[in-house]
Amino acid sequence: MTASESASLPDRHATAPATTPETNSDQVPTALVTAPFRGDGMDTLKAIARVIYDPWIEHRPLRVYRAADLADRIDAEGADILIVESDQVKGPVFERQLRLIGSCRGDPNNVDIPAATAAGIPVLNAPGRNADAVAEMTLALLFSVNRWVSPADADVRGGQVYANGVIPYQRYRAWQLAGQTIGLVGLGAVGRATKWRLEGIGMHVLSYDPFNPDATHNDLNTMLPHCNAVSMHAAVTPETQGLMGTAQFALMPQGSVYINSARAMLHDTDALVAALQAGHLSGAGLDHFEGENLPTDHPLQAMNNVVLTPHIGGATYNVEANQALMVSADVQRILNGERPLYCVNPEVLG
Questions:
Q1: Are 183 and 208 spatial neighbours (Cβ–Cβ below 8 Å)?
Q2: Whole-angstrom Cα distance, residue 149 to residue 44?
Q3: Terminus of the chain with fewer CB atoms < 10 Å: N or C?
Q4: How far apart are CA 42 and CA 48, in angstroms?
């Protein structure tokens, strides 16, 4: 929930500049692309560079380059443009003669930005690339928790529809989401994409974001008592780490639902477990865990009112198309001598 998170959502349908550099064949740059790329953005990149495409996501087992290995691959391909998503970009990578680096992330935390700046290499990013995807995941978790989708599915598969003489209507009644109030913590790109979807199903949406003047609240604790559900959409910073703790869960009304499709570091997991075990929260939906994994003996694993997914909110083909369009358009701008739209170290552009 930084100031940059509250920047306007980029137009992911924007096209690259119409002109391309006038080059002969030996001047065409070579782009090593290890991020998933597709659609119009890939077509744009192929029109302005020789593309070596080897996305990490297609490798079984998983392949994520360490810096030294990535530097070797740059040498092997003769690349002067590097586009990554997960590979480690630091140290020896900056000793290569790169024109630019594209990181297909809103926050390019896989790139050593100070080192790139010192080397005079611009680093492009793709803010808001996954906003719609994560917003949809948020709604999926909210519906699943509120309407008991996971345990009901397990009952059907396990032949337990009429378990202990109780019919499903007795076990799985719920309040409809329409007419309920939900609080969004963070009103950046994902928060805004979530907001209009929730309003579309008839929910009253409150929001807390000290960096966005459109938010309804500038104090989290004053918003929480009004929320039948709370959904997290803030960036992890020293100020937001553990933002939802014992006191904050206690402020939510009895029977509220907690959704986190952002990062687990935004809440105190022990406090969340305690609020669920006490019955103060009626359920939770979580798409991320610290260390990207939740131990099988963790208390959350035993709760049928909790839906757990393994950090898949941004896993759509549309995200790959979005980031390709944004990064390739800015690559073309730089090659044309124009300023890119999304560059985290614009001071190197002169």
A1: yes
A2: 42
A3: C
A4: 10
- For residue 260, the model assigns a pLDDT of 98
Domains 4-129+316-342 and 131-308 agree in fold: yes
Q: What confidence tens digit (pLDDT) does each residue in 260-291 have?
A: 999 999 999 999 999 999 999 999 999 999 99
Give dist(CA 115, CA 176) in Å, integer.
51
What are the C-alpha distances in Å from 270 to residues 273, 275, 288, 301? 5, 9, 15, 13
- Can the peptide bond before residue 340 be classed as cis, meaning omega within 30 degrees of 0? no
CB crowding 190-220: b at 16 or more within 10 Å, else e: bbbbbbebbeeeebebbbbbbbbeebebeeb
Q: What is the pLDDT of residues 173-182, one digit of tens each?
A: 999 999 999 9
Three-state SS at 95: helix
**Overall residue count recorded for the chain in this entry:** 350
71-82 burial string, b = 16+ CB within 10 Å, else e?
bebbeeeebbbb
The upper half-sphere exposure of residue 242, i.e. CA atoms within 13 Å in the direction of its Cβ, equals: 7
pLDDT (tens digit per residue) in 92-121 = 999 999 999 999 999 999 999 999 999 999
- CA distance to 94, 138, 194, per residue, from 197 (Å): 42, 10, 5
What pLDDT, on the 0 to 100 scale, is given for residue 26?
Answer: 57
- Residue 293 belongs to what H/E stretch? none
Please name the helix (run of DSSP H) or strand (run of DSSP E) that holds residue 307, with its range, or none. strand 306-308
- Which stretch of DSSP H or E encloses residue 185? strand 181-185
Domain residues of the chain, as ranges? 4-129+316-342, 131-308
Q: Which residues are catalytic?
A: 263, 292, 311
Structure tokens at 73: 């691959």
Q: Name which residue leads in pLDDT, 251 or 23.
A: 251
- CATH H superfamily, domain 4-129+316-342: NAD(P)-binding Rossmann-like Domain (3.40.50.720)
Does pTM top 0.85 for this prediction?
yes
What is the dotted CATH code of the domain comprising 131-308?
Answer: 3.40.50.720
